[in-house]
Amino acid sequence: MKSSIFITFSLHWDFNGNDQIRIDICNPPENLDNLIHEAFRSYTYGTSPDYTDDDKLAFIDNFRKKLNPANFDDYHDQYAHHLLDRAIEDGGSFDLNDDVDSSVDFAMSCYDEGFKPLYIHDESVDSHKIAAAHKTICRIIADVMAYKSD
């Protein structure tokens, strides 16, 4: 079983890896509220206060993506293997209509694969740790939503 679930935040949101913090969301640090406040303040730096609600939603979306990073290279490879297997079963050929249908199927499956909910259902993590992670996720969202500029 996995021992924990980690997420990385940038304190200055410069996307170059500097000043990042790594949070164990199953066992968050005592100063989590301050860390999230600083990360969000940095995220909104230079944005008009009129767009704070937009920033809150975007920040939470980014958090969700980081919580459940998709590995699209692996997914793409798996899907390509699926198409090849199907072609072999069908006699080893593709026709243009199948290719278009496959492209649409692939796009729809990528969309589904890209949606990662905040709710964690991972049987490789102890249920008590998942419950703790859910509390931390709710706490992070509440902190972001309650944010008032300094």
Give your account of this protein's structure.
- The chain starts with 5 loop residues before the first strand and ends with a helix.
- The longest helix has 20 residues, at 127-146.
- The chain has a two-stranded antiparallel ribbon with strand order 1-2.
- By secondary structure, it is mainly alpha-helical.
- The chain has helices at residues 32-43, 52-67, 72-89, 96-114, 127-146, and strands spanning 6-10, 20-24.
- Helix 1 (32-43) packs across helix 5 (127-146) and helix 3 (72-89) runs antiparallel to helix 4.
Give the structure's gist in a few sentences.
By secondary structure, the chain is mostly helical. The chain has five helices and two strands; from the N terminus they run ββααααα.
Helix/strand layout:
Layout: E1 6-10, E2 20-24, H1 32-43, H2 52-67, H3 72-89, H4 96-114, H5 127-146
Antiparallel strand pairs: 1-2
